[in-house]
Amino acid sequence: MAGARPGVPRVIAIDTNLFTLVLLCHRFKSKGLGVPERERELQEVWGRQDTVSLEQLDALWRIFERAHRRIVTQHIVAETFSNRGRKRLKEWRHAIGLVPEYNVEERSCRICDLHALTDFREIMEELGPSDAGLIYTAKREGATIVTEDQRLRDLAYHHGVPALALDQLGRL
């Protein structure tokens, strides 16, 4: 695995939507799909009004591969592989292989522990337990959060946690 280049975060923490895209990248890599198929599946999985380009997806994959550590929380994994998530990801069982193959670190973050911390209780009430746990875990692990959620990035910055959006990844 290639080492980190200057500007590429050494430790990343990924939110649910982008972890789903990373799993999709892994599927594309293993299946060797062409551009039209990749574009169609990308938009199906993304499922939002705003679109994600294949270039952004490739930039996400490069950051993921170059990071020395890749972290998700148990809440992120649970959301990604929930019934809704499994419907979005074709062949999701194959995608699970990405976790050990790339040494994705799955961290636990108990809701009651977050609730006991005033700052994180407020984040949890505003964004929910998954995002509050992601900020908490990223802060504890010295990770940069990778997310498309502007409010999550804002609260991460407020708590001293660096955060990047997809459109920033191509410049790293």
Search tags:
172 residues; alpha/beta; five-stranded parallel beta sheet; 12 helices; 60% helix; 10% strand; globular
Walkthrough of the structure:
- It is a single chain.
- With 172 residues, the protein is of the alpha/beta class.
- It has one domain (11-169): 3-Layer(aba) Sandwich (Rossmann fold).
- Helix content is 60%, strand content 10%.
- Strands 3-2-1-4-5 form a five-stranded parallel sheet.
- Helix 11 (150-158) links the parallel strand 4 and strand 5 (163-164).
- Helix 1 (16-31) packs antiparallel against helix 2 (35-46), helix 1 (16-31) crosses helix 4 (74-80) and helix 9 (118-127) packs across helix 10 (129-141).
- It is globular and about 50 Å long.
- Mean pLDDT is 86; it is low at 1-5.
